[in-house]
Amino acid sequence: MTIMQQMNLFNTSSEVAGFKLDFLEVWNWGTFDKKVYHMNLHGNNSLLTGANASGKSTLIDALLTLMVPLKRQRFYNQSSGVEKKGNRTEESYFFGNYGNQQQEGAASTTTLRLRDKGARSVLLASFCNVDKRVVTLFQVRYYTGEELKVLFGVARESLTIERDFSEFDLHGDWRKRLTKKYNTNETKRTIEFFDGPVAYGEKMITLFGMRSDKALTLFNQIVGVKVLDDLDSFIRTNMLEELPAEEKYQELKDNFQNLMEAKTNIDKVKEQIAQLEPINALTEELKEIDIRIVEMEQEKSVAAYWFAARTVDLCDKELVCCKSDLRKLEDRLKELKVQKGELEQEQMRLTVAIEKDEVGQQIHEIEKEINQRVRIRDNRKAKAEEYDKLAKLVKMEQSPDVEVFEINRATAKREKDALQVTIDRQLMEEKRQAQNRQDEISSNIEERMATIRYLQQHKNNISGRVAEIRDEILEAVGATTEEIPFIGELICVKDDERDWEYSIERILHNFALRLVVPEKYYKQVNEYVNGHNLRGRIVYQRYQGAETIREFEDRTLKVDSLLRKVEYKSKCLYLDWLEDRLFAEFNYSCVDSLADFNYLQEKAVTKEGLIKARGGKHEKDDRPEIRGKEHYVLGWDNKEKIAVLQAEVRQLQQEEKMTAAKVRKLEEDIKNAQKKRETYLTLFSKYDKFDDIDWQSCVLVIQQKQEQKRQLEEANNRVKILQEQLAGVRKEIGLLDDENNEAIKKKTLSENRENKLKERRKESNSALAQIGVVDTDAFESQHTDLLNVALEDLNGKRDTLQHEIDLALQKQRETKSRKNSDLKNLIYRFKNPAEEITMKYHDWRSDVSRLPEAVEFVGEYQTYYQRLLDEDLPGFESRFNKYLQENIINKVSAFNMFFQNWRQSITKTIDQLNSYLVGIDFKDAPKTYIQLVAAKRLNVDLKEFQDLLSSAIPNIHEMNSTIDGSRIHFEQHIEPLMSRLQDESWRKSVMDVRGWYTYKAEEFYQDDDQKRNTYEAMGQLSGGEKAQLTYTILGSAIAYQFGLTKNGLDSSFRFIAIDEAFRAQDEDKARYLISLCKQLHLQLLVVTPSDNIHIVENDISYVHYVERKGDRSVLYNMPISEFKAERERSMEV
Fold first, then answer.
1. How far does CA 793 lie from the centroid of its chain?
2. Where are the alpha helices (DSSP H) in 686-716?
3. 20 to 30 A from 825, CA-CA: which of 138, 293, 376, 720?
4. Per-residue pLDDT at 14
5. Whether the Cβ atoms of residue 495 and residue 622 lie closer than 8 Å to each other
């Protein structure tokens, strides 16, 4: 037996065989330049030593590069205690970077390199088993253009760089030569090449008998082994397999995606039918209304024809009667004329006889005077009565004397003029102002109602033309409100800061009305905005990603900062950018006093809205149209704004009623004033002399004349008799005149009636000629009562009937207008659905994009509605439910079984780890061992997931008990699970079954298996205890992942390397680790500075010494005995 074999720490037999490192070679790696350097271990424990920065870690990183091919799993230069991913890289090792140099006068530095892109680098490690099997790992690096290429390879034979890789060429001929050399005449390939790290790693894991790629990660961690800080995390991430839960989820998602899309499509069709049903119903109602309107208009025409025809018939009958009456009246007038002539002759005779008498002559003259005075009296009395009526209306003195008359007249002129001024300058102006206010209120009500309707269809506080422009942009570019939001939709004043809402709104108002346009839609938005007349103004912000510098800025907010009083919409796509802009532009101080306001130089605001901006600018805007909450634009919930607007509408409606009443009152006042003025005008202009109403003076004169006549008549009897005869004749003439006048009057009336009848008949005939022939039988049968109506009442009856028809038509037209408006709104909502509709049904807009918005084309909506009905939705649902039932059991159950199996595999793994830990001594006096315990983790999210998953597993009996059982189960149990799993961070946290448990370690006595201690938190242990527990847990992990068993396997991996783990003060830790390696028969490569060699020198076979010579490193190999002899000689000297 050789000295080396005697010093082999493991001295293993075939029962515990495994692959150990035979030698490592590097060519052009880091500061190992030009030549091939060998590190020969021969499967024994070895020591890699040398001064700091000599190149020890460079060799360990070469070993890591070969053993851990995936960059993301590998960490270089771990001896520093920090995983410095960017400090050393494959590229820096390829070029041989060895320092930086600053050129004279230059600010930047230049990296110093040993090689350029024309070089090549080769790493090679050969592992041997006791049965002489060999596995050689190699990697070749070279540059092609700007890309560093890596070729991975594995051989079942020992290779060397000098023999097998010296004839390198860029065309790959060297690779062909190696393949020909080692694979010719071989049934199993001796050498294999891999273009990528994954296949290379998988091959390595298979050949070494490792459990999984966790073994490679574990190898990397052992190199830079540190005391564990989190036992739970280490066990979960390094000792338990991570199964492809995300892949299983994607399979389930893909399987149910069609189902969910089909269900979404069914729901969408149902929703579209539900929205189209009222559209279709309203359309049918409007068709019926149109039919009724046509019928009423026809009835109106028929009625006009019937009344015209009936008028002609009745006029013809009346004209016959009129002609008969006129003939009779003409005959009677002739008779009266003859009789009156005879009486007038008798009157003439008696008058001549009386006139021949002198007294009679005097009486005749007095009678003429009396008659004249009576006419004057009657005329004046009538005027006086009219005057008194007018005077009473304006409360002036009635039956005035001459003095009062003049006073009244002066008063009438003054009041007339004053009333004209009042009407023109006061009442009419007040009426004009009231009417203007009424129009303004009506306009405000309509404007607010339109705003309310818009806000009810949306969720934000921004309305008006600017919101309509945004909607047009969204439709044009196919974006959503989340993708192109108003900034105001992303910001809200906190509930407990509402006192500052007005001030914050004033500061952020214009900024809030900007749109955020991401790069995805930027060009399309520019094209639309530039190519259309927007009929308004829009401001938008181009978003190219947030290039925040917050990490380099002091972002501490003052207590009174405006930014502390606002909150941001959850899941906001532009949060970082928005916070940056607000901090840069709107970090105002909200001050409670003017003293604080005056103190600050800029960016301050008071609760009352006084703003101090940059550059000394101050502003306060108290216009009522600005202060109202209805003008607020911040927030993603508009319920409060709608409520404010509704309250304003109610207030405006009340004010509108009051204003309308005021207008009516002013109109009545104007009418009364005008009437009163007319009265004063009449009193002034019509009665300009008192004599016009002085009828009483005439009464005295008449009485005097009558007395004179009486005295003369008493003095002459003959004249008296003649006068009595004359009076009798005159009386008869008067009766004849009365009868004649009455007959003339009747004749005139008859002639007028005849003319009117003829005119009416002519008008009716003209109307009939224009209308044409109309069948009135149906109308007459419906209105038999009209046949009993007289001609005089016919027009009234016609007007009443026409009015009733007009009212009915008006009502139908109003109904049509209202239903048209409802239909327009329904069409608008269908064509421009609410956000929750478009979020749920993404293709809704594309479905309805071709449908016109105009009501006159509603037939296209009916066609679309009928097409949806014809698609046999119930049949589609039935097939969907059948497919659902056929797939629901297997897919969900398989998904659940995956997690149950994973759970069982964790239990099994813990048991396997514990089986290794039983054989590892944790402490010696007395001897103890460690066992791992996995306890269920109490976590709300985990419970939610497990409950959702459990409820998603169908109960077959319950599901089949109803027709819609499958669909109901899908909606109530599977959809919630799939919906919740869409949250990626939540999904990844709950679907990692390793996280369903918390892990701890328990210590037991070996002699009686009684528990000695429990280790949960590493903080409760001393440094030595932490290290001991760390190494023990690592030992079980190595045994598990490297494929070790108590009896050994023909393929296992029994090599670890530790970089600078042993220091002078850590001797106990080092000795425990060496003891652990002995128990597990592991080959150990220790990397430590030369001053710590004494800790391990009795347990190693070889020393590999690294030395830095200038810019390059060199490597020396020697047995430990030679190293000790050299050291003793140097000490003697």
1. 67
2. 696-715
3. 293
4. 39
5. no
